[in-house]
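Database export, one record per block. Field names are fixed; values are copied verbatim from the stored entry.
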Amino acid sequence: MKYKLKTETVAIGSQTLRITALEDLDSTVDQLFDRINAGEDPRLLEDLCPYFGVVWPAALALCESMVAMGSTLKGARVLEVGCGLALPSLLAAKLGAVVTATDFHPDVPEFLKLNLAANKVTVDYRKMDWKDLNATEGLRPIKALGYDWVVGSDILYERDHPGTVAEALTILAGKSGRIIIADPLRPYLQAFVDEMKSRRWRADELTLQVRGKNGTQDILVLAFNRT
């Protein structure tokens, strides 16, 4: 798809990011529906829906939490799942981390290329489906990964996500990694927390208020450690 774009400045603590994003999400989704109504495959909606192209409040909350970590991230290996515009990945790279960003949408790499250049940082990218980690080029062998931090924001939006995301995060974090998830209190959040507990993870919770397009929103940030 061809997108109408905008560039915005995002301030997180002492850090500032320049982000290329969709000019308007609703009109972009409407374009996709127009293509489907004109006879194209309805699966386009699942494959190409452009929700990745927006600065979501949960990503901002995750970034705030990462800034608060200070020098902890310097030199750490960080993996972001479902990165979208990859604000947390860009920020982690600015804070000195070695970062891998992952997503499944085919247009994410082009946006990431623009935003890497604008912010003068380096982030590795891998196309990844958390339902099939072993199919992800460059992330094998899975059992030997051992990222220091696995992070994600607003990634629990479908019924099957609690179990599949919990399993993927557990594998990616390895034996000693830690996990941080930011969520806007979606319906599947508690089921996800239960899935993580069943895999012997303990969560420390912090609620942050983030100002978004529709006003101030509460975002729950969950930091998971092994029990």
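Remark 1: Confidence is low (pLDDT under 50) at residues 140-144.
Remark 2: The longest strand covers residues 201-212.
End of record.
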